[in-house]
Amino acid sequence: MVEYYAQRATAGLIITEGTSPSPNGLGYPRIPGIFSAAQAEGWKRVTDAVHPNGAKMFVQLMHCGRIAHPLNLPKGARVLAPSAVAASDEMYTDAEGLKPHPVPQAMTEADIKSTIAEFAQAAKNAVTAGFDGIELHSANGYLLEQFIRPNSNRRTDGYGGAIENRARFMLEVAEAVIGAIGKDKVGIRLSPFGVFNDMPLYDAMQADYTYLAQQLNARGLVYVHLVDHSPMGAPPVPDAMKATFRKLFKRTLILSGGYDAARAESDLAAGKGDLIAVARPFLANPDLVARW
Q1: Is 138 helix (H, G, I), strand (E, B) or coil?
Q2: With 79 labelled, which of 146, 147, 186, 287 sits at a CA distance of 20 to 30 A?
Q3: In terms of pTM, does the model score above 0.90?
Q4: How is the beta sheet containing 13-19 ordered, strand by strand?
């Protein structure tokens, strides 16, 4: 991993792969975490290799929530979600191959509080490990988005129902990590109109994500990273939705989704965003900056 990230340190900003803030968040086999001292020490070797070559580096905090299987979790960890609603499809396990997603445990208010605290501690661990900041993964059907979307959040308490309640967990996590490390070190990833991991489209989505743009702007996060999965077959994020974030969110807007160099330059020149994120071409080409 040290070699992999060091090879890509000509990027302006590296955002890591999904990294769990909690043993409960390790939904897939063999994904990294940043909840233990040993993990922070391992990541320190990575950031020490990246920074001399000029890149900044944010760790992507990804709690998988219900996109998980007990066979992938360490002893004592639990599959948690807003509600006891299983995701469709299957999860790969090293032990037994593909398995149906289990019905998760609906989080109690105590679980919510402890999970928020885990995110805050993970953010502190990230700074200790030499990261320049963290990105909250509130996209792609993982825990933070599971609270936002009405199909996976069937709660009747203060964390369910209207968007003001469904957004509460994500916003409380954002406030906790800002309190831990400062707003200039906290970004967030969103996937409006994304359908990955059993997140179907619904009528109020544009209004809900407009509310999120306003609330995130009010909290002063350093960036919003909008994901558009249409190059991989998902519904496109409407231009109007991207324009809403451009208008309402006053700090840095990162756009991603199937960009090549020409389209990236075009969208930047048109003022559609401030930064363009590139993933698959950079995975295959460590020298992508030089090639482009």
Answers
A1: strand
A2: 186
A3: yes
A4: 13-19, 56-61, 133-138, 186-190, 223-227, 252-256, 275-277
Tell me the catalytic residues: 142
| CA gap 213, 250 in Å, rounded | 10
Cα–Cα distance for residue pair 132/139, rounded to 1 Å = 21
14: left (phi over 0), alpha (psi -120 to 50) or beta: beta
Report whether pLDDT(185) > 90: yes
In the chain the beta strands, taken as DSSP E runs, fall at: 13-19, 56-61, 80-81, 90-93, 97-100, 105-106, 133-138, 186-190, 223-227, 252-256, 275-277
Tokens of 200: 């179907």
CA dist 247 and 217 (Å) reads 10
Q: Residue 56: what residue type?
A: K
CB 199 within 8 A of CB 235: no
Query: Residue holding tokens 């885990």?
Result: 118
**DSSP strands (E only) in 155-242:** 186-190, 223-227
pLDDT tens digits, one per residue of 136-166: 999 999 999 999 999 999 999 999 999 999 9
Closest to 165 measured CA to CA, from 226, 104, 112, 102: 112
